[in-house]
Structures are given as C-alpha cells and as structure tokens.
C-alpha cells in the first residue's frame, strides 16, 4: 500500500541534505564552542555561520538570534521572560483564543502568578481584528503575543498592522512564527516585532532545536541559568549538530520558498477541485488562498465523525490530522474551531487538517483527495 504523508504541519521529514550536514558534524566537529583550542574554535565557527545565515533569513542582526530547544521553549522564554522583566510597569498581557498551547498554557501559568491576560476573539475565518487589539491595549499592557499563521486552519494574522499599532506603546510584541517561517517571507524590521519564535522540525530540520529572535534593547529575564552561552541569554552547551542542520534547512527553505508556495497552492486547488467533481459536501475552515499559509488546508465534512475519518484515512495509508499535533488523542474539541464557530458547531467534530510538504507530488494529492471523497461517502451519516 502506498503511504501518503499529509501532516507536515505536525512535523516534517528531515531533508537528505540536512542529514548529510549533521552526520558530517557528528563525525568531525565534536568540540565545545566555548573552548579556546582548535576543536572549540571549529565548533564556534559552525555556530557563528549558522547564526549569521538564520539572522539574515528574517533580516535580523547576528546577536538577535538565540538558539532554543524548539518553538515551545522560545514561546515560554518570550512570554515569561518579558513578564518578569516588565512586571514593575504592568501585569497585563494580550493574546488570542487561537494561539498554540505553548502560548496559551504559558499565559495560564502567568495568570496564576497574578498577571491579567486578555484573550481576544477571532472571526469565522480565524483572524483577529487590529481594532480589537487596539481596544484591549491599556497603559499597563506589557506584552502582546499573537501568532503569525495558525497551525490548525492556516489563517495569517495582520502582524504588520499590529506591529505598527504598538510602535509607540511600552508593550513588547511577540509572534509565534513556527508555522509561517520557511513558507512565507519574514522581515522583522517591516513587521515591527520584538520577539519571534521558530522551530526547525517544521521546515525539514531536526527536532529539538529552534530559535527566538530578540530585538536589540528588549528586556527579557533568562529562563536558564549556568554558563554564558548564547550571548548570555540561554545557558547550556550549544547543540552544534542540530544547529548546523537547522541552518541547512533554513538555506533550502529560503531557496525553494517561491517554488513551494506555487506548488502548495496547486495542491490546495487540486484537492478542492476533486472534492467538487465528486460532489462531496465540504466547507473550508479559514481561507484557501489569500490570508492563508500555503501548505495548510483544513476541511469540514458535514455528516462525518473526525475519529472515523482519521481511522479510515490511516487504513488507506493517508496521514492527516484533526488539528494540533500537541492535542492528538485528546477528546477535547479544537480550541481554534471553538473560537471560530462556537462550542456547539458541528465543525468541531468533522474537520480534518491536511498539510503539504517535502516529498508530496500532485499525483499523491489527487490520490488522497479521491480517497477522501470515497471515505466521506462511506462514513457519512447523511
């Protein structure tokens, strides 16, 4: 049976060139980048080259990139770090109801520490209004944290407009760009963001490595204490092998970005076209083209059950998801879909996320869409 992987938003396969780079480092460059001898200097050179390349990918400065263990740590560092650094100026934080749990659960933690969190609503497309952010701003607001592109429905938020709104306010602006990085061009100067989180395993890099962009001058209390690694921002010996692999994945993603955007949009259009031809009853959650991440398509199939759909898809060799990989197996409905449609909406129980990436072909998409149509007809209660 041919297996088709359409869950790249959960994690992505490591690119062969990334694997080659990492094996080379494992074989030849085991030094500690903090050591002053030749082994350490060799490792330091690899670290500096990687940081330079990654900084350039978002138009940041070399010393504004701090490597982390992934997106979750980066989100925690940004949110708790700002909260602790700015608590004398206020304890109010603004976010949205559709953030990744790495943000939402961190905000819930801070609520228990005496901080006040405003959770903004979104519209039925999963987008927050700039006016809502403006209305929620207070003199004691110290942080606004809003994701760049949603990991479940793909909706892109008005980050640049929000950044412009906050330019003259004391509040720092953080965006979780884990799903957007590598598929969209990002310029932190144009966006006016102070903090930005990224994870390597979403862009065909290794798991367990990410980075946080920290704009020069941003006040942030470190979360790890020990040595003076990572520009004194994050203690602990750097994971050189994964960092080099991450940098290679970034290089490939930057080179292939335009091509991937066109290809993934073609995948989306073909998928929907086949459902139309088969006269399948469906609804798109979010956007298909504009204001949407190119690699992500979330579809509601009225009259079906998400668990039955996923089981049948898996039996057919198709890997898809009901939403965030971090809530896989949970009986709780998607908090993103609840925010978009309400807790009583049927979409909470019949929506599937398909996400595209390395290795997918148009032929695979056609086969998957046809199989999805057949499964919907088989399991539909209508």
UniProtKB/TrEMBL annotation:
The keyword Iron-sulfur applies. SUPFAM superfamilies: PLP-dependent transferases. Keywords: Iron, Iron-sulfur, Metal-binding, Pyridoxal phosphate, Transferase. It is an enzyme of class 2 (transferase). Residues 4-367 form the Aminotransferase class V domain. Its EC number is 2.8.1.7. It holds the Pfam family Aminotran_5. It comes from the Bacteria. It catalyses: (sulfur carrier)-H + L-cysteine = (sulfur carrier)-SH + L-alanine. GO terms for molecular function: cysteine desulfurase activity; iron-sulfur cluster binding; metal ion binding. InterPro entries: Aminotrans_V_dom, Aminotrans_V_PyrdxlP_BS, Cysteine_dSase, PyrdxlP-dep_Trfase, PyrdxlP-dep_Trfase_major, PyrdxlP-dep_Trfase_small. Its cofactor is pyridoxal 5'-phosphate. NCBIfam families: PRK02948.1 (NF002806). Belongs to the class-V pyridoxal-phosphate-dependent aminotransferase family. NifS/IscS subfamily. This is cysteine desulfurase. It comes from Heyndrickxia oleronia.
């Amino acid at each position: 049976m041919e297996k088709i992987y359409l869950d790249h938003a959960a994690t992505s396969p490591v690119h062969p060139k990334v694997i080659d780079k990492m094996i080379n480092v494992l074989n030849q460059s085991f030094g500690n980048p903090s050591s002053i001898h030749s082994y350490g200097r060799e490792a330091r050179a690899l670290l500096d080259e990687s940081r330079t390349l990654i900084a350039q990918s978002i138009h940041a400065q070399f010393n504004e990139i701090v490597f982390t263990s992934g997106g979750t740590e980066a989100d925690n560092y940004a949110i708790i770090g700002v909260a602790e650094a700015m608590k004398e100026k206020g304890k109010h934080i603004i976010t949205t109801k559709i953030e990744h749990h790495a943000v939402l659960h961190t905000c819930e933690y801070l609520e228990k520490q005496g901080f006040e969190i405003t959770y903004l609503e979104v519209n039925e497309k999963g987008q927050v209004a700039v006016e809502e952010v403006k209305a929620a701003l207070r003199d004691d607001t110290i942080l606004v944290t809003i994701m760049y592109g949603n990991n479940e429905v793909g909706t892109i938020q008005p980050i640049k407009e929000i950044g412009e709104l906050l330019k003259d306010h004391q509040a720092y602006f953080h965006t979780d760009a884990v799903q957007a990085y590598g598929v969209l061009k990002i310029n932190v100067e144009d966006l006016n963001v102070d903090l930005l989180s990224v994870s390597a395993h979403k862009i065909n890099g290794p798991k367990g490595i990410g980075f946080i962009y920290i704009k020069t001058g941003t006040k942030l209390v470190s979360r790890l204490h020990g040595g003076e690694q990572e520009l004194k921002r994050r203690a602990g010996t750097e994971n050189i092998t994964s960092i080099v692999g991450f940098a290679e994945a970034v290089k490939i993603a930057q080179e292939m970005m335009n091509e991937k955007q066109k290809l993934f949009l073609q995948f989306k259009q073909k998928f929907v076209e086949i459902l139309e031809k088969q006269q399948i009853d469906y609804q798109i959650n979010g956007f298909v083209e504009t204001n949407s991440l190119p690699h992500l398509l979330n579809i509601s199939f009225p009259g079906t059950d998400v668990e039955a759909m996923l089981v049948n898809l898996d039996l057919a060799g198709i890997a898809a998801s009901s939403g965030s990989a971090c809530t896989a197996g949970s009986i709780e409905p998607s908090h993103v879909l609840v925010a978009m449609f309400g807790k009583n909406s049927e979409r909470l129980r019949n929506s599937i996320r398909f996400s595209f990436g390395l290795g997918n072909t148009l032929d695979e998409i056609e086969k998957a869409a046809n199989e999805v149509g057949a499964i919907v007809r088989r399991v539909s209660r209508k």
